Amino acid sequence: MDFTLSPEQELIRETARSFCDAEIAPHAAEWDRSETIDRGIVAKLASVGFLAAALPEEHGGMGLGVLDYTLVVEELGRADSNVRGIVSVSNGLYGKSVARWGTDGQRARLLPALAAGTELGCYALTEPGAGSDPAGLQTSATRDGDGWRLSGQKIFITLGSWASSALVFARTGEAGARGITCFVVATDADGFEARPIKGKLGLRAQDTAELYLDGVAVGPDDVLGEVGGGFKVAMSALDHGRISLGAGCVGIAQGCLDASVAYTKERTQFGRSVASFQLVQELLADIAVETEAARLLVRRAAATADRGDRHTVEASYAKYFASEVAVRAANAAVQAHGGYGYVDEYPVGKYLRDARVTTLYEGTSQIQKLLIGRALTGENAFA
Ligand SMILES: Cc1cc2nc3c(=O)[nH]c(=O)nc-3n(C[C@H](O)[C@H](O)[C@H](O)COP(=O)(O)OP(=O)(O)OC[C@H]3O[C@@H](n4cnc5c(N)ncnc54)[C@H](O)[C@@H]3O)c2cc1C
């Protein structure tokens, strides 16, 4: 596969880089320290089209292809994973799911506000008792007239308190994957409560919440996809989400490389730059090679998706490798900065904290390996 970027793709990447350098990177450390992002960033993201990037043009989106979209997400990840998550979740996990599985009416009702940044969406799959095994989720949807009432608890939901609308996966039937339905739920509905989760290792400025649903009423128009088809909706969102997350991880790793090259060239010990020591160059070379390899896996997965081919396994390769690389790169970057890497005057400590979650969410590294192993052998190690 040839991944040389076209002039249009270079322009997308450069536009994203300029925006991130001007509007995000200068604030990232302060948002991290204060554990709050200035919410004005949502309107700014919308003004450059990033909250519409992956959405169809007929509903206000930019209609970018998957590879083009990863160019934007990589730059966001390099600038600040807190902001990258807003785009990946609202425009990606939520928006792409509505675009793919929604009726014409649902798309027209939900997507324009999302693209304009006047509303955000979140994706609520995980529960206290159902993380790696979402088919075991317990949130219930019981029939009420021609609609349903939802009750249960969701945990670790990105944008759970900021979003106006949530994709809530709930049980409408039999145990297991086939009894799950996806609902579009307004977060200001009676019986819906979001409680922010504090004390995170990283992504400190990002909104993460527990959701409580107590008899929340939804109508027949709020079912996304088919009744009983929710697991398919959830997994298809992750097939795309994992490519986007992989791109965000490449951004973290690239940011670590850029910061480390600059710092080690500047810092002197023993009368010479620390960059001139071979063992420091080894740290930099490892980050550089792994970052490039991760980028190629992300682009391979994106190109597969752009061709319209099934890309579940390619997305797992990309997500698994890129997330592990982000953690290794950030750890090596802290090493290259010495003691200065341990304080937040430099970005690498934050990169390490923000990277750490990426091997956990959207399927842990262990789960990605099981998906890859299943594809290689035909044996399902989940069951
Ligand atoms: C900051 C943050 C944001 C998040 N955002 C969202 C969101 O927006 N929406 C959402 O729905 N969820 C979200 N999540 C949840 C995330 O996807 C889950 O935490 C993740 O899927 C892992 O589930 P768990 O935490 O229950 O871990 P568990 O499933 O309990 O896993 C614990 C350990 O056991 C291992 N393990 C589990 N099963 C197996 C197996 N079969 N074989 C081998 N090892 C196994 C895991 O790899 C892990 O090491 C978020 C999480 C965090 C921390």
Explain what you see.
The protein contains ten helices and ten strands. With 383 residues, the protein is an alpha+beta fold. The protein folds into three domains: 7-120, Butyryl-Coa Dehydrogenase, subunit A, domain 1, CATH 1.10.540.10; 122-229, Beta Barrel (Butyryl-CoA Dehydrogenase, subunit A, domain 2), CATH 2.40.110; 232-377, Up-down Bundle (Butyryl-CoA Dehydrogenase, subunit A, domain 3). A four-stranded mixed beta sheet has the order 1-4-5-8. A four-stranded antiparallel beta sheet has the order 2-3-7-6, covered by helices on one side. A two-stranded antiparallel sheet has the order 9-10. Strand 9 (268-269) and strand 10 form a beta hairpin. Helix 1 (7-34) packs parallel to helix 3, helix 4 (81-101) runs antiparallel to helix 6 and helix 6 runs parallel beside helix 8. The longest helix has 37 residues, at 230-266. The two termini are 35 Å apart. The mean pLDDT is 97. It binds flavin-adenine dinucleotide. The site of flavin-adenine dinucleotide (FAD) has 21 residues, from strand 1, strand 3 and helix 10.
